Amino acid sequence: MSRPAPAIIGSVAALALLVLAPALLLAVLPVNQAQFWTANILGRALVFGIVAMSLTFLATYGGFVSLAQMTVAGIAGYTVAIFVQGAVPTIVGGFGYPAAIALGLAAATVSGALVGAIAVRTRDIYLLMITLALAMGVFRFIETNITWFNGYEGIRNVVGPEMFGLPFRNTYVFYYSALGTAALLYAFVLYLVRSPFGLVLQGIRDNPRRVAALGYDVALHRIASFAVAGFVAGCGGVLATFYNIGISPGSIGLGATVNILIISVVGGLWHPIGAFVGALVFAVFDTFAATIYDRNRFNTLIGVVFLAIVLVSPDGLSGLVRRIAGLLHNTVPTGSRRR
Amino acid sequence: MELALTVVLNGLTLAALYFIVASGFSLIFGLMRTVNMAHGALYLVAGYVGYAVFEPLYDRDLWYAWYAGLLAGVVFAAVAGLVMQQVFLGWMQGQELRQALVTIGLSIIVADQLLAHFGGNPRQFFAPDAIFGSSWVPGVGRYPTFRLVQIGIALAVGIGLWLLLNRTRLGLMIRAGVDDRQMLAACGIRVPVVALAVFALGAGLAGLAGVVGSTAQPLAQGMDGRFLLISLVVVIVGGMGSIVGTAVGAILIGLAEQVGQALFPTYSVVLTFVIMVVVLALRPQGLMGRALP
């Protein structure tokens, strides 16, 4: 916050690079490979980066490491799938995409607030345990419930809205929708943490009793921050559902939940941007695990990377970069906290 | 009536298994504030290692096959726990979140390597003849003997832990460590050694549960997540770091699961989590836990 100018310049440069990325890829790669990189690596990284950003937002400004963020994202995806016209099987149906997406985001915001309310009296490691237990509870419920969620099979054929006469499946429609959403949400989060609400939130992180003594309702602020994170995660969940053309319990299972944690920790829990750094690394590893180690051993590979980062740099990759930059400039990075 | 009693007995035998798993988790947490997210992975590793020892012996029809598997599983898990504490967790004592992340990383790698070595096919131990088959239980009828033995093992574990904590010098040190680690160290006790002992014990209990649990139900990929979740819910409900609390939590969750499945199968999972949420709302430290520091 003390140096807003370089941060904003950096963000704008990164955004410009991402806007131009599909064209740059087309310039250096054959068309099909360029499209693969655009949608399956960059686009997917943006989508999961959005979900992970809901976690890095909570962790950075509230000090809450919640493992329920993928679950909240999944609730948004499931809500869209349940209400939208054309999904297979039809659970409720009859809604157009704009209405279904609005319902999905509302459901994610409410369930985010609910997670916050349940975990409101706990913190640190207890919060991690409770949110993990909640996430697994929702997963097991959705997996076994046929009436509302079509159980193990999930709901298919959620193709996403048409835009400019093109299907959502179109590489560039998907990519620029994801990029636009990610950029707006990122700006929203950075704006929010500078607002009075964000300042109170950071005050609660550093000293809840002092903030309470100033007359602020600590519990309410905590729940509100979980609701905001729920909305952000919900946006990612809706995009992920369109990307996968549907949703199944696997997308909110233990593996998916832990993947969001891996993305956030690899990127770094000290700034919301870490989510996107981690998501890009994750997507690249996920795609090229076969050539790096063994086709089926992606989990070992990403597990080792994750473990190495936790052991070497608790700030994640972006924290590592920042520390090296700090060393080069012979200054101690400000605001570096270990949790 | 008979059905109701069967459901209750099912709940209690399940609770016995849950208690064995969660007691190790709770013990480690109680002394070291380490949330061992690899607890489920230790359960799974012990199951597979035990099975690798058990299978060739069982094929040769040796009576001690199951016992050898049990011993191998428990010892392997205990040693794995020891190594984990020594190599990864000991030097970052106090950084609770980082420890949890490290154990998550380890459990991802372990689960994937187990899949690579043992494949995805479920396996199951066969209990030795002495505790195989079924017994007659008043009011219920014939009931699998092994599941009754499971209750016996849980009782032995519970009483053993109580005696260890309340009647031995090591127990004294552990209880003192729970209250004030620094003071204990200042008294000349080598706390890291006590920590290693506790970690080995807790991991060994996960191993015991791994073999016992894989005799009563299949041993398969994904069980690590299931039993980690069970451990979490049981200690959240019962109170962290308390043996009595773990027992109460295990009985409550075991019964809720079986009763829920009997009454409303599709929604039985919800019951477990309703219990957890209600306990959290009324007593965040768990039913038997002490107030959070």
TrEMBL record, chain A:
Subcellular locations according to the entry: Cell membrane
Main location: membrane
Source species, domain of life: Bacteria
Membrane topology: Multi-pass membrane protein
Transmembrane segments: 6-29, 41-61, 67-88, 95-119, 125-142, 173-193, 223-245, 300-321
PANTHER family: ABC TRANSPORTER ATP-BINDING PROTEIN, HIGH-AFFINITY BRANCHED-CHAIN AMINO ACID TRANSPORT SYSTEM PERMEASE
Name of this protein: Amino acid/amide ABC transporter membrane protein 2 (HAAT family)
Automatic annotation (TrEMBL), chain B:
CC per GO annotation: plasma membrane
Record InterPro entries: ABC_transp_permease, BCAA_transport_permease
Membrane-traversing stretches: 6-29, 41-58, 64-88, 145-165, 191-215, 227-255, 262-282
Pfam families given in the database record: BPD_transp_2
Residue stretches in coiled coil: none
Keywords noted in UniProt: Amino-acid transport, Cell membrane, Membrane, Transmembrane, Transmembrane helix, Transport
Protein location: Cell membrane
Top-level taxonomic group: Bacteria
GO biological process terms, semicolon-separated: amino acid transport
Membrane topology of the entry: Multi-pass membrane protein
Keyword Membrane: yes
Name by which UniProt lists this protein: Amino acid/amide ABC transporter membrane protein 1 (HAAT family)
Annotated source species: Stella humosa
